[in-house]
Amino acid sequence: MPHIAGIDHVQVATPPGADDAARAFYGGVLGLPEVPKPAPLNASGGVWFTAGSSQLHIGGQAGFVPAKKAHPAFFVEDFDAYCTLLRERGVEVREEAQVYGRRRAGIEDPFGNRIELIEASTG
Length: 123
Hints:
- This protein has helices spanning 19-29, 79-88; strands at 9-14, 34-35, 47-51, 54-60, 73-76, 94-99, 102-108, 114-119.
- With 123 residues, the protein is of the alpha/beta class.
- The longest helix is centred in the N-terminal third of the chain and has 11 residues, at 19-29.
- The N and C termini lie far apart (35 Å).
- The relative contact order is 0.21.
- The mean pLDDT is 95.
């Protein structure tokens, strides 16, 4: 039966011209590996990263407004250590209520977009 098999990517908007700041945060601070954009899409700018088997696409948007509700949510291995690492890198990490027995935290990128972190395993 035809069905959706997964998520290929999530797009997060930034102010136009913020590729270097996005690269520094998502690649440098969060540690996501950057992947090259396909040549036909390079003219529009933006940067792409891998997150497990999916991708995170970052791109400038005219009239940008930070996403406070819509957000990517990342599974995090060694949740405590990762949250500590982010705090050491100057990121405000806000603990949130557990869901399905998994700890969660909220952070924001440098542009004010919400990001959720979810404990990858409970044991």
